[in-house]
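Table S2 (continued). Query chain:
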Amino acid sequence: MADSSRKDARPFNFKQAIVEMVQRNGSDLLLKVGRAPTIRVNGELANLTMVPLKPEDLKLLAEQIMTPRQVKEFSELKEADFAIGVPGVGRFRTNIYQQRGTLAFAFRAIPYEVKTIEELGLPGVLEEIALRPRGLVLVTGITGSGKSTCLSAMINHVNLHRRVNVITIEDPIEFLHRDVNANISQREVGSDTLSFGSALRHVLRQDPDVILIGEIRDIETLDTALKAADTGHLVFSTLHTTDATQTINRVISFYPPHQHQEVRSLLSTALSAVVCLRLVPRKDGMGRVPAAEVLINTAAVADNIRDLDKSLNIPDLIAEGTVSYGMQSFDQSLMKWYKDDIVSYESALFFSSNPSEFALRASGIDSASDRTFSDIHGEPAKIESSDIDLDLTQ
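Corresponding output:
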């Protein structure tokens, strides 16, 4: 009993927990009172072999890693977002919040090295999208589906191939970009600018060619993004939506009904592409791969968005644009991974948008009138387990 008491009295070793998460290729570390530190590996939660946390453990951790400004923000809002660096270990996006009157933390691993689009196993058409001179590019998906990682790869592609001025507005800054060909200024909400709104009101005076907005959270942010894209800038941002159709509907729904016609018209000209992501477990258990739906704003797509009298028909438009424009549906993407023997049939079926149709296609049954599973343009790349970034979880 005495031994147990001494063990429980030992202070929580945060560095030990974060190191173990990194060593096990985990994406997240979750800390809350009454439970041992928990990590997320390949989408699944697992407890570390450490004693349950006590209120004083997390209070001491907060004092060690938070700045006075962050402490003040937390005391006012009961939650705060920021990024920290642990020497010799890595960078981590951090959220502190309160639950049942006690502190809780969520740490997300941020790789030091920015991976390329190809290294992440993302569709090659994203390279072409990243080099477009203007337009709004939305990267969407649920939390932890790879949005931030995908955006960082696209900004990296711009950096490698264009001599342009890039302004990012992030909360917090996650991936760090060094200038190669582009001039990149990364602004963090709270330390470099007071708010998203304040930064966006001035961003067009900072001579940007490319603007990255960490997340579209309100109508003010969306309005600025659309107008910047419509006036000749390339704008990247994210939304928490599950597919291209829902993304377009969400953008329209930000505005009151009497503005929907105006917004549809603006979106039809300002939108460049929508990339939706889902992370699927690999068959060999070595991480996850991205299933991606890609919508390019062609003339047919723009007409469909603009016309109030027609419902959105995005899935058919994606199928029609597969060969000519490099578009693809989730089910096409999943079929590619399945045929390459990277993901299992069960996983592909689980993550598919139309499981019954996917099952028919996987068994070799085709319908002459259905182009949903038309071959994706180009030969699929053969990807080894070592080529996939196991931290594609932002």
